């Protein structure tokens, strides 16, 4: 609960207090996730450490994207209802699953 609260506060802080806005916050956390992916691909950094970095960065990214969908237009959001934002995010998840479909790994004995 402690880490979730801090990560949510970080997302809100980046968008509001730091002045990045929702798009800037999304770009910031998205870029940090891309750097983590690059570290996964091209370094020998512990996969456990990289997992926790992604785990921590995903919540503030979700906060700024969720706020972007939900907040009023004059606050920089799209003013979708909670249901509209949820349906939009669900459609994005389903589209991602279809576009990045993975075949099951073959287990050799």
Structure description:
The longest helix is centred in the middle third of the chain and has 24 residues, at 47-70. The termini are far apart. This protein has one domain. Helix 1 crosses helix 2 (21-42) and helix 1 crosses helix 3 (47-70). It has helices at 2-17, 21-42, 47-70, 82-99. It has 109 residues and is mostly helical. It contains 4 helices and no strands. It is globular and about 60 Å long.
Summary tags:
mainly alpha, single chain, 109 residues, 73% helix
Strand content: under 5%
Classify the helix fraction into a percent range.
over 70%
- How far apart are the termini? 41 Å
Rounded to the nearest angstrom, the radius of gyration is 16 Å
- Count of individual domains: 1
**Biggest sheet: strands, sense, closure?**
none
Shape: globular
In round numbers, the mean pLDDT is: 90
Number of helices: 4
Order of helices and strands: HHHH
Q: Please tally the β strands and state the result.
A: 0
Spans of 5+ residues with little confidence (pLDDT < 50)? none
Structural class: mainly alpha
């Amino acid at each position: 609960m402690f880490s979730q609260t801090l990560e949510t506060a970080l997302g809100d802080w980046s968008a509001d207090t730091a002045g990045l806005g929702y798009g800037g916050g999304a770009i910031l956390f998205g870029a940090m996730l891309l750097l983590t992916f690059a570290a996964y691909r091209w370094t020998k950094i512990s996969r456990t450490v990289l997992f926790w970095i992604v785990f921590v960065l995903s919540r503030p990214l979700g906060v700024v994207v969720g706020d972007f969908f939900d907040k009023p237009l004059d606050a920089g959001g799209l003013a979708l209802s909670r249901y509209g934002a949820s349906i939009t995010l669900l459609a994005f998840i389903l589209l991602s699953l279809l576009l990045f479909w993975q075949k099951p790994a073959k287990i050799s004995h």
